Here is the input.
Amino acid sequence: MPLPQFTPQEPKDPITQEKERLEQAIKHIPQRIGVHAGKGGVGKTFVATQLALTLAQTRTVGLIDADVDCPNVPVAYNVQDELRFSESGKLMPIIHKGVKIVSTGFMQDPDNPIIIRGPIKHRLLTDFIEKTDWKDVETLIFDFPPGTSDVPLSAMQVANLTGIIIVTTPQKSSLQDAKRAAGMATKTGVRIIGVVENMAGEIFGTGAGKQLAQELGVPFITSIPLSKELRETAEQGELALSKKTQKELMDCLA
Ligand SMILES: Nc1ncnc2c1ncn2[C@@H]1O[C@H](COP(=O)(O)OP(=O)(O)OP(=O)(O)O)[C@@H](O)[C@H]1O
Ligand SMILES: [Mg+2]
Here is the structure.
């Protein structure tokens, strides 16, 4: 009798295994978008929260505050609340103007900082992806922390992103870090949707974001001015962007 054929299978590496597991949790969400910059303080949270409000006018949007140790989404929306679990054990997002949000800012107050190392940050991010009730969500946005390691790396590797938006101010240091963020996307195989120039105007200049997009060979999405009115409206949790910018953001995701 011939011996049965046996072909040994290579075990999958842990990152691929985790990526496939998380994909099961969000496979019903067609768009998963990271808002990345490399640089801190250039308006990632501002763009992510305003993008979410823009899209929530016509679809159901989820927002993961991936800045797990210094979360700013609750303050950006001027919302205070506490995350709860459903009876079936799902994390129930906080809803602001149709945007379903999870953030560690809804778990702990700023007087009690979250002091954790990379592996725990990774776990928080994956729990947000996997354990939240994302029912009906059509676009899931990730507000990245600064840098090109830890959580941005986890998100790029296992969050099954359909693309990232790069935010930069027109200043040299921001452009340099935006290039790092773009290089990270290329190395991890994540599509760059385009570049948003933020805080444009007299103080920091205008046009460098467009130049960066040309240099990277990706679309330039929009330029948002540095503006007191914009900031004040946004800080009330309202949609502050001009109709033109809203359209340019929606078009880049169409
Ligand atoms: N176009 C703008 N005009 C005026 N103020 C702005 C603009 N964009 C962002 N801001 C303000 O600048 C500050 C920093 O923005 P934000 O928190 O979004 O940056 P960030 O890149 O997310 O920072 P971090 O790296 O800490 O996460 C916030 O107070 C925000 O309201
Ligand atoms: Mg932020």
